[in-house]
Structure formats: C-alpha cells, structure tokens
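Chapter summary example.
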Amino acid sequence: MTAAHGQTVVTFRTVGAPVLRMVDLAEEEFGPGELDPFIAGLEVAGHLLSEEQEAQAVVRAPDTGRVFALEMYRPDLFALDALAPSVEALRQMVAGVAELDGLYGRFSDLAGHTGIEPVKEALQRLVAVFREEEWGPDGWGPAGGPEQWPYELPTLWRIMAVIKPMALIASPGRGLRLDLPAQVLENVFLGQGLARGRPVRAATRWALPRRANGAATGSPARGT
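The structure predicted for these 224 residues follows.
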C-alpha cells in the first residue's frame, strides 16, 4: 500500500492470485511436519517494507482473518506479531498513518504547527485511528491477544504512534536540518519508559522464497 504523501508501508499480493500458504513455502526447503501447526496454515498476504525492501511477511489466518507479521528463522524458530484484525483493517490503519505523514484528512489542521502540543495531539489521534478497529480477544494464536499488548496495541502500531508524530516537533533551524527543543523526549513522554538499549546480534532470518511475489503467484498490489 502506497501512502499518497508518504512511503510505502505494506505491499499486498495481487487480488485473485493463487493462495500461497506458509506450509507450501516451507516444503521447498524443509519437511512440512517441521512447521508449527499454527504457522503452517497461515496464508501469505504481502510484506512489510523497510527502506523499500521486503521485511517481515504479512500473513493471514484463514479461519479468523487475523493478520500478523511473521519473521522466520527456522521452521521451529519464528517471531509472530499481531498486525490487524483483518486485511481491510490493516488497509485502514496504513491509510491513517499516510494521513499523518501528509498532514491531510484527519490531520490536516496540524499543517504548519510544530512543538510539543502538536506532537501530543497527533499521537492521540493516531492511537484513536488504530483503536477504531475491532481487535477482539480471540484468534491471535502465539502472538497473544490485546490483554497482553502494552497500551492494548500491537508493537508496530505503538511504535508508529510514538515515532510518526515526532516529525511535528521541530521547525527548520538555522544551519541545522532540525532545531529540537531541549528535553523534548522527557516533555513528550513525561519521563516514562525512556531507556537506552544495547546492540544485540539477531538470529539469521529465514528468507521466504522469491516465488511469493513471482509471476506465477502475482506481484504485490499497490493502492492508496
């Protein structure tokens, strides 16, 4: 999905393309019995993008419609994160992020405003966009349900709600790209949960075979 005024966040497989299940992909390198049963039944719906490169697979549970971000390391080692109650809900949330990026729609009145208060207002509105969806407690499998998520939002959307509004914090500075107010993080987040992490070495990611976006299965569809 391409934001009208921002970067592409998600690519979706072409509507009508053949169903592509995780178990089908795993069979190309591993035995189907090696996959976790919940993972094996998921359908590949697209990919999250990072710097215009495919990152985690966007997968859907066919029985519930729940959507997840999946990072595979080995058939028995994976990271599964809740993403959306449905593919349509995912489209709506990405559209909300695009509105904030471009300062149009629900965020149009924030255009031209910078500082702590506009950041707080944008954060609250974006969180409200995400919470409009019917998350529900069931069907989340190994990812866990809303009662286990901080702020009752999946990790990706909480990060979006924290980081995206920060674009409104500073006006152009003299000689600097941005002129940030002193103690900006403390003022926005009230000193709560601020910490510096140490770099860690992550496990090697199991790349999904390229056939996921090949001619036989359809290329990612881009919409607004």
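To summarize the output: The helical segments are 22-26, 37-40, 87-102, 116-131, 155-163, 184-189.
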